[in-house]
Amino acid sequence: MCLGIPGEVIELHPEQPDLAKVDVSGVRRMINIGLLCDDPPVPGEWVLIHVGFALSKIDEQEAAAAMQFLEGIGKAYEDEIAALKASLIE
Asked: Which terminus of the chain has fewer CB atoms gathered within 10 Å of its CB, N or C?
């Protein structure tokens, strides 16, 4: 199963406008925000992430609801977090 997981944008990459650092359950990674070029996220906003790409912006309530659901399904969520920890976009 492939999941989209919510992450909070922490900072934008100063030299690469299509990259942003996000926090997902305490894991901080660079992700590609290029798909959101029409309405790029800013620090403090939430995005839905899949395989290192931000697919859409979501609000904090949607992020909290998604996290609650994901944590409730167990293994698939744990696998997605492990994949995020192992990924690097630079």
From this structure: C
Phi, psi of 56 (to 5 degrees): -160, 160
Nearest to 25 by CA among 11, 6, 45: 6
Which pTM was predicted?
0.79
Give 5-86's CATH code, choosing from 1.10.150.120, 3.40.50.620, 2.30.30.140, 2.60.40.1520: 2.30.30.140
Which amino acid type is present at position 32? N
Distance CA 67, CA 32 (A): 20
| The two three-digit tokens of residue 58, written as one number | 């979501």
